[in-house]
Fold:
Amino acid sequence: MWSNTRMVVLTAMCASLYAAVLIPFMVVPLIPGLTHFRPANALPIVCSFLFGPAAAWGAAFGNLIGDFFTGLGPGDVFGFIGNFLYALVPYRLWRACTQDDPLPRTLPRWLLLFTVITVACALCGATVGFGLQLLGFVPFAVLANVILVNNLVTSAVLAPLLLTVLYPRVRRARLLYGDIVGRPPRAPAWRRLAGVALVVIGTATAFVLGNLASGGWLDPTTLAALSRNMRFLVLVLPPLAIAVSGLTLL
Structure:
């Protein structure tokens, strides 16, 4: 996408829009110095369905711009990665599951949309929570769950409304990702099934194991010789890697 001028411009637009809506709400902290009330979290989901990878890079850079106003630190690396994945999951999972527009009009399509949004929110929360627990800033069980709920509430409410308004207009303007760079050939069914399964299972496993390990509920005797942080790393990193590998198949 970086060789396409319009995709680069859309990346900049997504980043600036995300940052512009994030920054005013930084005065409403949920975990002071780490995360705050973020109604802007619906934007990466909406932009993902519209602009594909431009939204993923836009969300990552937009979140980084917002972090400038609270002070940058090593944890922002995981915020960058988490927001990139947050806006990468929706369009890839949706494209793998159906060729319909992301405008839910039937119950199965509503369920699919909410499932896709939930997976995106959980993977973002697990990624950021994983990194900040390793750095010793805040436990996974606190941060990952706050991010999941914060993202899910705003996205589940606002994203369908914004998509209903924006998607038909962007489609008529021929500015959808597929219109700009061309629709890629659909992957074989086995590859799409494997990719979706890896993303969903990896994300769910990382989130559950992260909560259990962070809360001290999971302490395998086979890993007793390792430090607590190393045990957490060994338990949570593999399912996160599985989820990311699933995205590469889609």
